Amino acid sequence: MIEISLPVTSVTAICAALILLMLTWKVIMLRRKDGVVLGDTGDRVLTKAIRGQANAAEQLPMALILMGLAELQGANGVALTALAAILLIGRGMHAAYFGIHGLTWRLRFYGMFLTLIAQLGLMILLLLTIL
């Protein structure tokens, strides 16, 4: 059996799963509170929570795939860890905006900005490892 070790990707995936779990829990609680089975019934707070959860589900998989591939290819550990931290900080900021009603939109903006920076960095890092 081949042993594969991806510690940076593994820790990042655990943290990302925690963020997604918290966003999912928020949606579940809002749905239960108002008895909403499907959709959002026009509730802006629920709509916002649903989009926050969906955005995390849309962004995190590709970032984790890029990270795992870069780590498998032997990418620089310091660079990989820095990009993982940027990703998680960005996702945390983004999740806070969507999960806690009333927070400033700047968390969403800068959270997404950091997410995109991390993804771009991971693409470049992976590309550099395979060239």
Write up what this structure looks like:
With about 130 residues, the protein is mainly alpha-helical. The chain has one domain (about 5-130): Membrane associated eicosanoid/glutathione metabolism-like domain (Four Helix Bundle (Hemerythrin (Met), subunit A)), CATH 1.20.120.550. The protein is about 80% helix and about 0% strand. The protein contains four helices and no strands. The chain has helices at about 5-35, 45-70, 75-100, 105-130. Helix 1 runs antiparallel to helix 2 (about 45-70), helix 2 (about 45-70) packs antiparallel against helix 3 (about 75-100) and helix 2 (about 45-70) packs parallel to helix 4. The longest helix has 29 residues, at about 45-70.
Note poorly predicted spans: none
Structural class call reads: mainly alpha
Query: Mean of residue pLDDT?
Result: 95
Oligomer: single chain
Helix content: over 70%
Separation, N- and C-terminal Cα atoms:
28 Å
Number of strands: 0
CATH fold type: Four Helix Bundle (Hemerythrin (Met), subunit A)
Largest sheet: none
